Amino acid sequence: MPRAAARPSTHAAAIALTRAAGIFVALVALAGAAEAEAALLPVTLDPSVTREAVVAHGTRREAIVTTAPSAIRARVEALPAGARLLTAIAVPSTTAVPASTAGQPATAAPPVRFRILFDVDGASTTLYERVLDGADTRDQRWVDVGISLAAFQGRSGTFSFETTAVRPDSTGPAAAWWAPPLLGSCALEGPSLLLVTIDALRADRLGSAGYARPTTPRLDAFAADATRFTRAFSGGPKTVPSVPQILTGNYFYWQRPGRGLADLLGVGMPSRAIVNNPYVAVFLRNERPGFEAVHAGDLDARAITSAALRYLTAAGRCPSALYLHYLDTHTPYHAPPRWARRFIDRKAATTIGLAFDDVTGAWQDRYQDADKRRIADLYDGSLAYTDRQIGRLLRGLARRGRLDRTLVIVTADHGEELWDHHQFFHGQSLYDELLHVPLLVRFPSVGHGQVVEHLVRTVDIVPTIAEVLGHATAGGDGRSLRPLAAGAAEAEERTAFALVSSAEPRTPERQAVRTTGAKLVRNVADGQLEVYDLASDPKEKRNLGPAAPDAPALLRTLDGFRAQLDGKGYHVRLRGRSDRTVRYALDVTSIGTPVPLIAIDRLTLEPDDLIEFKPRASAFSLTGTLAPGDDDHVRFDVLWGVGTLKLALRVDGAKLPESALRLGARAVPAFATVDVTNPDLDGEPALAPPADAVTLELWRASPPATAAPAPALDDATRERLRQLGYVE
Which of 184, 423, 566, 631 is 20 to 30 Å apart from 661, CA to CA? Predict the structure, then answer.
């Protein structure tokens, strides 16, 4: 049954507020299986002590920002059984430079002593004490703090969170940050969550899937004690859209009806995300609600596992949620030498050593067969290194007594092409080497040692989490996997859908549907169809085309998924002249700060009408012909709901006046530059009779979602993306 919403309970500690240093903090402990695992209610009043979003040491989180010396107090009544205090502490690594000394190097932040005390009837007990020095690289991180309160069960008292400067005479303020304190009830029996995604991991590279090399002995051992889904498919061939689809349970996540995983976790479960992929970090940091803390950076598998184990240690036995995204199987391949050497042929005639990062060279076919084998060997070595670290994670989970009370899910965002269709990397196609991913699920109570051969999708992960955690799902494209793990039969086979939502020249827009026995791929650029009989052609080498027997049914299924975007997004339509056929070329470009134009689709185009996708997914062009009375129509979405579009149209080689554009249902005349939030865009214009000139119309089919500024990618992030192979 769905878990009841958190509500006042006779077993809950009473809330008391104490003002100190201008801040109110209320800590709430909830007990009882129907209650939330943990709760907090901070309120800030004094500008000298604030609660705000802080990005520090690679982590974004809400934090209580203080300057030492400071003291924050909170009173609680009758601590329940299993109570545990959870917070985290940090200091900046440098001190801001005053305006009078601008241009001088930043100075080291002075060390700060953090203390947590609990006062009962005037007797004070120090629960925690630690000095953090921002100049010490070991302290340039958030330090998780978890304190068992078992010794104080049933007692009432006041918590004090104190900071003092170790060197009060140091230059600059002694800034100190607390994660908002959380009082968890660890006596609850509710399950925890561990969700792991491994970037660019093919399903066929695991030993449990039959791969001959010992790339994944630890994941194979885990699979033997979990449910292994042999036919699991991602909704996209690159991190965007695949990770947002996983975390929301929606293929068209930007139009989703529910909030997905972040909404399921809510305030009641402590949560953390530790990821190494700039795209994943951007998505997570813009989710509202979201994980309590998102730690992102250039973290290898060992660093991610170590950070995860520190968090689990602090959480104790309290139910919690942890999401990890490992990147080591993504280019550049640079596993530690021991692992890079694991599978290479040292006598091979290749100039490639123990690392590889030349994605552009691979795309330009610079490498010979021996080079390609070495690249694949390095991929396998990176996987073996990742497997070792995930094994360390799973052992740590078991040693902390959490494994049997945790829903553990291990999957990938997408696969990787290793020249299966004469190309390398990912995003460029919708063939199985990019969509077929591993999916291993260890349920707390069912499915151990099960192998499920039904087709499933990564959008099924959020509904599965919702069922196991006792939440009602909020709509979406997936269905829970738990019945399959329990051996239940399904009345209707699942169908997998996939798309390239952020199209670029190297990764053009495509859409696909897949059943157990067949696949259809639609190329949006020209409307051409590819159809494969997977029973006789599992490697997808023989395109049967639209004449294939399965093609009509598959196309109807694909159109059913596409119909989810009917009446949504932005639309461009050209109407032909009344007297003659014309040729046209239309450019649609996001100008200023470019924002992605996604899910571009051809609605009423002829086969000779072509869409061309531009770099950075922020522009496209449409070329074709318009017969008398004809209209050509495409739709697209603007990912962040903000931005400026420029439309440039040429007809028979002549540029149309910029004032020829018409907006929305009222056909408001407009110049070629349009703010996508302009209310004049609302509504589809009526189809007017053909005129003696080409008509260009732009409208928004549905009310805009709450606009949000596009996340800024600084130079360091862009360089990091280039290192990962995203040259566009």
Answer: 566
Measured between alpha carbons, how far is 670 from 690 in angstroms, rounded to an integer? 20
Among candidate residues 671, 675, 678, the one with its CA nearest the CA of residue 648:
671
Q: Over the stretch 55-90, which tens digit does the pLDDT of each residue have?
A: 899 898 989 999 999 888 888 889 988 899 999 999
Read off φ and ψ for residue 354, nearest 5 degrees.
-100, 10
Asked if 63 and 92 count as a contact pair (C-beta separation under 8 A), the reply is no
Instruction: Encode 562-600 in three state secondary structure.
Output: HHHHCCCCEEEEEECECCCCEEEEEEEEEECCCCCEEEE
C-alpha span between 504 and 613 (Å, rounded)? 5
Contacts (Cβ under 8 Å, ≥6 apart) of 728: 504, 505, 506, 615, 616
Q: Tell me the pLDDT tens digit for each residue of 306-326.
A: 999 999 999 998 899 999 999
Tokens of 187: 């006596």
Residue whose C-alpha is closest to residue 53's, from 65, 44, 62: 62
Euclidean distance between CA atoms 373 and 367, whole angstroms: 10
Percent of the chain with pLDDT over 90: 66
* Residue 398, helix vs strand vs coil: helix
All residues at 6 or more sequence positions from 559 whose CB lies less than 8 Å from its CB, including other chains: none
Tokens 């999708």 belong to: 457
Write out the two tokens for 627: 């017969």
Please give the mean pLDDT across all residues of the chain.
87
The Cα–Cα gap between 241 and 160 comes to 45
User: At 200, phi and psi to the nearest 5?
Assistant: 60, 40
With cut-offs at 50, 70 and 90, classify the pLDDT of residue 458: very high
d(CA 240, CA 238): 5
pTM of structure = 0.91
Under the banding of pLDDT at 50, 70 and 90, the label for residue 138 is very high
* 566 has pLDDT over 50: yes
Count of residues making up the chain: 728
Going along the chain from its start, the domains and CATH numbers come out as 15-94+108-185 (2.60.120.260), 192-492 (3.40.720.10), 499-565 (3.30.1120), 570-700 (2.60.40)
Q: How far is CA 35 from CA 9, 61, 320, in A?
A: 8, 25, 14
- Alpha carbon distance 518, 536 (integer Å): 10
- How many helices (H) and strands (E) are present in the chain, helices listed first? 13, 42
